[in-house]
Amino acid sequence: MRKWHRQIMTVFIFTLTYWVISGLIMALYDATDRTQVWAIEGGGPGARVTDFAMNAQAIPAPNALQAGIDAARVAVGGMAIASVDLRQVGTATRLQFADASGARTRMRRFYADTTAPMSDRVADGDSGAPPPPNVTLRNTIKKWHRGNILGIPGQLVGLTTGLALIGLAVTGVLTYLQLWQPRRRAHKGALFWSGRESLWRRLHRWVAIVAAVFVLNIAVSGVILAVGEIQLNLFLVHHIGTPPYPRPTPMPAVSSGPLTGDLRAMLDTSYRAAQAAAPGAAIAALTLINRDGLVKGLVTLAGANPRVLAFDATSGAPVADWATTGTQAGNGYYADWHQVLKRFHRGDIIGHFAGRYFDLLAGLALLYLVISAGVLYFEPRR
């Protein structure tokens, strides 16, 4: 077991050092940034794809926009429309058409009431103001930490490093137990002990046993998140597979093919079905997509706890869809399972700030273990 532990560390010591240092910088950044401005920009605890709906204005009924919707449909001509999205952006009602490629350059955006073209910046709710410097810095560090800066190859290296860290945590604990069990049988079962050994080796063992659970949490949650990032990259960039969680709101909804039928009628049917299902609820967005061989109307209800309802856009009957699952809260981009896992990875699952300090301590412990492992490797080699 000790041999496996040493060999894994020897192979991955440089990539582990890279990921530990970049992760530690992020942990230090988050633990000292009491304003948490980056969370407002996206990716905060419990973030969901339709969180804009918490403060969104209700959209007008599609029938009230009949002339604008029909004129916009004529304006896009022969475009193979895969999704239609109707929502408020500030005080304007945005009507967006997207084709099955999902390419931003192929989207057509209109003011739904006047059918005038809407600029991409207005359509995405971009005020034009640059993000705060600390948000920009954090996002840059995050790209390096996740390996996204190098695309899929970088993500694969990160995934492999995470698997190596799991191996190190498991073999390290088993090695510790191999050393501790004979001592316990000799009635010397203290968890911490010293012997004729270097201070590096003693501290390495003590720090490792204290931090083992935290290191294993970082490794396992990081590996699962890395798999999700690779899946998302394959889907968005190479159009392979399906997304592991919903895509960011500025992007078109994932649709399996072009829409057919009267788009305005289907928007109105979905709108009225949502009014019947949730009387009095404000409707923040309405999306038509082709999924599971069916044209669906996804209706986002606004309020303190936004949620999505799905209907057959032709009949108005309720249908199942993965966009309807989970509770939506917080600010940001992603589905609950992804955000909950990120909270485990960051440590703030036990408290927004208390967990961050645990995460920081775990990162410092892991950095020490990497450094001391390098020292211990050269001790017997000398």
Topology, please?
Blueprint (H helix, E strand, L loop, with lengths): L1 H31 L4 H5 L24 H10 L5 E9 L2 E8 L8 E4 L8 H4 L9 H14 L4 H35 L13 H40 L24 H15 L5 E9 L2 E8 L5 E6 L23 H11 L7 H28 L1
Question: How would you describe the overall organization of this protein?
Answer:
This protein has 382 residues and is an alpha+beta fold. The chain has 2 domains: 2-47 and 147-244 and 336-381, no CATH class; 51-123 and 252-324, no CATH class. It is 51% helix and 12% strand. It contains 10 helices and 6 strands, in the order αααβββαααααβββαα. It has a 6-stranded antiparallel β-sheet. Strand 1 and strand 2 (92-99) form a beta hairpin. The radius of gyration is 26 Å and the shape is elongated. The model is unreliable at 38-51, 247-251 and 326-335 (pLDDT under 50).
Derived structural class: alpha+beta
Largest sheet: 6 strands, antiparallel
The SSE string, one letter per element, is HHHEEEHHHHHEEEHH
The total domain count is 2
Keywords:
382 residues, alpha+beta, 2 domains, six-stranded antiparallel β-sheet, 10 helices, 51% helix
Give a short overview:
The protein has 382 residues and is α+β, with helices and mostly antiparallel strands. It is 51% helix and 12% strand. A hairpin with a 2-residue loop joins strand 1 (81-89) and strand 2 (92-99).
